[in-house]
Amino acid sequence: EAPDEGDGRYLHLSLPSGMQCTFDNDGLQISTPDSKVHIENNGNIVIESSKDIDISAQGNLTLQAGGNLVLDAGQNIDMTGASIKSAASGQAEYKAPSIKIAGLTQFSSS
User: Fold this and answer.
1) Which of 48, 6, 7 is nearest to 26 (CA)?
2) Average pLDDT, integer, range 12-18
3) SS3 assignment, position 31
């Protein structure tokens, strides 16, 4: 949605399909009827969608956070790979009503 004229300078593009792009003092906002990307002037980036979001790379894909990294799903989280490693510099905690481990299991103190 275009900002109010009292907000200063801005550039707003709107297409009949519902696609919109707005540059203003707050940042850049690109939106469709189902999705929105907002790059804020303070450096925050917000991506919202009522549909699926797919990210893929032919090479490596890295997610890195200086603070917490939170993965939260309303349903399942599935991870597959040739090898999966998990490490913590402090305590690692796994909590569930039941935990199932299949395959050869090895425990090591190091």
Assistant:
1) 7
2) 95
3) strand
